[in-house]
Design a protein that fits this description.
Blueprint: H1 3-24, H2 38-63, E1 66-70, E2 75-79, H3 82-90, E3 96-97, H4 98-105, H5 108-111, H6 115-118, H7 122-136, H8 138-152, E4 160-163, H9 164-180, H10 183-186, H11 189-209, H12 217-224, H13 227-252, H14 263-270, H15 278-309, H16 314-328, H17 332-337, H18 339-352, E5 358-363, E6 369-370, E7 376-377, E8 382-385, H19 387-391, H20 407-413, H21 448-465, E9 466-470, E10 481-483, E11 486-488, E12 494-499
Parallel strand pairs: 2-8
Antiparallel strand pairs: 1-2, 3-5, 4-12, 5-8, 6-7, 9-12, 10-11
Helix pairs in contact: 7-14, 7-21, 8-9, 8-21, 9-11, 9-15, 11-13, 11-15, 13-15, 15-18, 15-21, 18-20
């Protein structure tokens, strides 16, 4: 009987907090999508949760430079023009904080751990050691992809329907963790499922936690955190491995014979003393799995849908790869020569992406931040770039609403030729103010080189070993699925596989 008054009191409290916040942080000089007054803007925030892509696209079409959208407890400023996005790229972390912006989006204090923002040393590990591994451990990457495909999609002379996204998640998890924790654990079913499920839980729980005002998050966050359960499950697998690695390092130093060349070793090479504990290292492995698996799996699944819907791309992709493999074998060098393959994947990323907005930042300079056009944002403001709308702007890409798998191959050929330094301008790993999937500048995704190598080998393995088509053979790619600003590959679609004759 006492529940209703408590709920009413909580609702009133939340309403007052939101009202105060919106009055305090009003950005009246920036165009708003929807109502801008406190209570109506709260309704606008609910509309935004339901229909964010349409609202952002409408703001982009109307304003072209900058606008703002209502969240439940704040306004987020959306940048549209390449000039403003370039200002964001050049800004110092102490002025516009990527860590604080990304941390707020994912409620990291309760989902991944505060260290993801306060001490992101794993980014250095990813930028250096993991990137080098795309060459030094290419054979392992290729081997795990081949083995995982063999296990997940049995070669058959008959067409076999495969649930695409779920299957791809398992293959990506195995491939990533082959380099993260080794061959034994990467093939362990429970560990593989943990790495997939934790990332899903982080995203789901962050969305719920972010429905609450900041003042309530310390109460709600710990109750909704996915970390305790994930840590307990991960300990069963990782404690013996990490304890043995620490023991060997302490006894023989960091160069002992047979020391695995994996993420655990790389983390130990960069970790400060307070980070060299079993639980801290397990937490980092979970963080890195979160960053590595779902974005890569969704990107590959979207590309797979495009290839299955438009099989005319298969022959030129095969011919290009066959030439490269004859010259260099299955190697990083061979993948680098596959300009059409790179183009196909970049175009899929442009066309689909993973979010309507990207490059989240928070103004941390007490004096605020002023853009090159004079627009000023006070300290505490949040902003992001209009990624999806930028990628679908005819001013940047001719016929932007049409998927053109070799679009970037033609652009590269016309900008320095195959293999030329200038041709890399349109390579998948190269971001620019009109291709924002990996961010820009110093905060561009540090794992993009590993992710792109994985995507290339997976797609190459697919079209070299299988024939594929959509379940209904309709030639229409399964539609993407949106939740808020997040874009994901269709979760229910199946792709038919048959062993290549």
């Amino acid at each position: 009987m006492e529940t209703a008054p408590m709920v009413t009191a909580l609702a009133l409290f939340v309403g007052v907090v939101v009202l105060i916040h919106f009055k305090r942080s009003s950005l009246d000089y920036i165009p708003a999508m929807g109502p801008s007054r406190p209570i109506p803007s709260y309704r606008g925030a609910l509309d935004y949760l339901r229909d964010a892509p349409r609202i952002i696209q409408a703001g982009y079409n109307q304003h072209k430079s900058i606008f703002r959208v209502p969240y439940l407890d704040k306004w987020v400023v959306v940048l549209c023009s390449p000039e403003l996005i370039n200002d964001l790229r050049k800004a110092r972390e102490e002025d516009l904080s990527a860590a604080r912006g990304f941390g707020a989006t994912l409620a990291v204090n309760y989902t991944l751990g505060a260290g993801f923002v306060t001490n992101p040393y794993h980014n250095r590990v990813i930028q250096t050691s993991l990137t080098r591994s795309t060459s030094t451990r290419f054979t392992d990457i290729h081997d795990e992809i081949s083995t995982a495909f063999q296990h997940e999609i049995k070669p058959s002379e008959d067409w076999v329907a495969v649930p695409a996204l779920q299957t791809v998640l398992r293959i990506v998890s195995r491939t990533s963790n082959r380099l993260f924790v080794g061959i034994e654990l990467c093939r362990n079913t429970d560990y593989r499922n943990l790495s997939i499920e934790f990332a899903e839980d982080v995203i789901k729980r962050a969305r719920i936690i972010n429905l609450f005002p900041d003042v309530l998050k310390p109460l709600v966050g710990p109750m909704l955190s996915p970390k305790p359960r994930a840590m307990a499950r991960a300990r069963r697998h990782l404690v013996p491995v990490i304890e043995e690695r620490l023991r060997m390092d302490n006894e023989y130093g960091a160069d002992w014979d047979g020391r695995p060349n994996d993420m655990i070793s790389w983390l130990l090479e960069h970790a400060t003393d307070d980070e060299r504990t079993v639980d801290k290292l397990i937490e980092r492995i979970l963080m890195i799995n979160f960053a590595a698996i779902h974005t890569t799996a969704n990107s590959f699944t979207q590309a797979l849908y495009h290839l299955a819907a438009a099989p005319d791309y298969v022959t030129p992709l095969r011919e290009e790869l066959e030439i490269a493999v004859r010259e260099d074998g299955w190697s990083k060098a061979a993948m680098g020569k596959c300009i059409k393959l790179d183009s196909f994947l970049r175009e899929s990323q442009r066309f689909n992406g993973v979010s309507a907005i990207n490059m989240n930042r928070m103004v941390t300079n007490p004096a605020g931040f002023t853009f090159s056009d004079g627009t000023h944002l006070p300290q505490g403001s949040f902003m992001a770039a209009a990624t999806y709308a930028t990628h679908h702007d005819d001013a940047h890409y001719a016929h932007a609403e049409v998927f053109d798998g070799f679009r970037f191959a033609r652009m590269r050929a016309g900008d320095g030729g195959e293999g030329g330094a200038e041709s890399m301008k349109f390579g998948m790993v190269t971001p620019d103010p009109t291709f924002l999937s990996f961010g820009l500048g110093n905060h561009a995704c540090p794992g993009r080189f590993f992710a792109v190598t994985t995507l290339k080998v997976m797609l190459a393995h697919t079209f070299m070993n299988y024939e594929i088509k959509l379940e209904q053979n309709s030639g229409v790619r399964p539609p993407s699925e949106w939740f808020g600003t997040t874009c994901g590959a269709n979760r229910s679609a199946k792709v038919l596989f048959r062993r290549r004759a």
